[in-house]
Amino acid sequence: MDIYYCKTIILYFFAEIILCVTIPLSDLRSKQAMSPYAYKVQKLSKTTRLLMLAISAIILSFMGFQLLVNQQVSYIDSRPFLALWASGEVSQLVLFLASVPALLLVILSVYWMNKLLLEFQSGDFFSHTSFRCYIGFVWTKIGAILYAALLNFAMGMWHSALYESTELIVKIEFGYLTTLILLAIVAHLLKAAKEIEDENKEFI
Fold it and tell me: Which of 4, 54, 120, 159 could form an S-S bond across to 80 if both were Cys, CB 3.0 to 4.6 Å?
């Protein structure tokens, strides 16, 4: 099982939901007069949320099995880290503690996505909670990318202090990172537009 392919699949479904809900606000103003398109988005949100939770549970179970049974850290993609883990000369507890933030960021991203899809499922496509969940998810993914790069660099420096030959490659998924930053900007703009609309309603 390749958890990075699974991550891409989950992000794809999430992007599909975002594309589906970026429709005129006038179509979704009233739950009593909900359009067929909005109802379709609600059903898609529910299906996607359940699928995401199922995939996430499988991935987390696999990572837990690898860690507890096979003594392997499958959620870290860093050659220096894995080399230090397998060397036996470095405390695996210290390495595990260094990897905990990466694992927590994965769990946090699942939390934000699940909460957002619950909002969509209930028909709250443009609520303040929806925007907060969306922005939280995007910034969590950005944080995960940056922490992975920092961890890889730190492990490379540690490995070079113990061994003469060290291959240090600092990997940053610039395409993925740029996409997430753009999504965050769009989310902030939509949130600002929603706040302006709410202010205009107060004057009416």
Answer: 159
Q: Give the SS3 label for residue 51.
A: helix
Question: pLDDT tens across 46-96, in order?
Answer: 888 898 899 889 988 998 898 889 888 888 888 889 889 988 888 889 999
Question: 44: closest CA among 8, 24, 3, 15?
Answer: 15
Higher local confidence (pLDDT), 202 or 68: 68
Give the position of tokens 């260094």.
98
Asked if 102 and 75 touch (Cβ cutoff 8 Å), the reply is yes
Interatomic CA distance for residues 11 and 56, integer angstroms: 12
Report residue 65 CA to chain centroid gap: 22
pTM of the model: 0.71
Residue 27's identity, in one-letter code, is D
CB 170 within 8 A of CB 121: no
Q: What is the residue type of 49?
A: R
Task: Give the rounded distance of the alpha carbon of 89 from its chain centre.
Answer: 33
| DSSP notation for 54-108 | HHHHHHHHHHHHHHHTS---TT---HHHHHHHHHSSS-HHHHHHHHHHHHHHHHH
